[in-house]
């Protein structure tokens, strides 16, 4: 049996993390979702746990999503979400190989990203 897909969801708004967690669990057969409303708690988790997918808000108190994305390995699927489109440098996202979505997050597209991460994980496990 394959190991669970490790997914971290970070947003300072609890209703957003709840919605994304439910959407991921609905679409994924293996996802283990770790949701954080405190970016510093998420930072501590990321420093000690490998993850397959990170979905994070950009603008949060005390720590931003770009900084969180920098903490994960290059193989991690990175998704940045925000309502502040004009503040995010596209070249920075491209350098980090991150996907960007403006809020509200398109749930169907998010489901495809999770499915692709599961396929990638299955390929590495074989």
Structure description:
44% of the residues lie in helices and 22% in strands. With 126 residues, the chain is α/β, with parallel strands linked by helices. The protein has a single domain (5-125), classed as Response regulator (Rossmann fold), CATH 3.40.50. It has a five-stranded parallel sheet. Strand 3, helix 3 and strand 4 form a beta-alpha-beta unit. Helix 1 (14-27) crosses helix 5. The protein starts with a strand and ends with a helix.
Strand order of the largest sheet: 2-1-3-4-5
Give the H and E element order: EHEHEHEHEH
**Number of contiguous helices:** 5
Rg calc = 13 Å
CATH superfamily: Response regulator
Helical amount: 40-55%
The helix/strand class is: alpha/beta
**DSSP strand tally:** 5
- In total, the number of domains comes to 1
Provide the CATH topology: Rossmann fold
Q: Strand portion, in percent?
A: 15-25%
Low-confidence segments, ≥5 residues, pLDDT <50?
none
- Level-2 CATH architecture: 3-Layer(aba) Sandwich
Q: What is the arithmetic mean of pLDDT?
A: 89
Q: Which word captures the global form? A: globular
Measured distance between first and last alpha carbons? 11 Å
Q: State the name of the first-level CATH class.
A: Alpha Beta
Outline:
With 126 residues, this protein is an alpha/beta fold.
Give the secondary structure arrangement, pairings included.
Blueprint: E1 5-10, H1 14-27, E2 31-36, H2 39-48, E3 53-57, H3 65-70, E4 77-82, H4 90-95, E5 98-102, H5 107-125
Parallel strand pairs: 1-2, 1-3, 3-4, 4-5
Helix pairs in contact: 1-5
């Amino acid at each position: 049996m394959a190991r669970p897909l490790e997914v971290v969801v970070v947003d300072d708004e609890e209703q957003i993390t709840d919605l994304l967690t439910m959407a991921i669990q609905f679409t994924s057969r293996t996802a283990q979702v770790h949701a954080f409303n405190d970016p510093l708690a998420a930072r501590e988790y990321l420093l000690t746990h490998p993850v397959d997918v990170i979905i994070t808000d950009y603008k949060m108190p005390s720590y931003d999503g770009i900084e969180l994305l920098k903490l994960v390995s290059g193989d991690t699927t990175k998704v940045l979400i925000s309502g502040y489109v004009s503040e995010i440098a596209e070249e920075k996202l491209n350098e980090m190989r991150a996907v960007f979505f403006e809020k509200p997050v398109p749930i169907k597209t998010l489901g495809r990203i999770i499915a692709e991460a599961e396929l990638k994980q299955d390929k590495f496990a074989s």
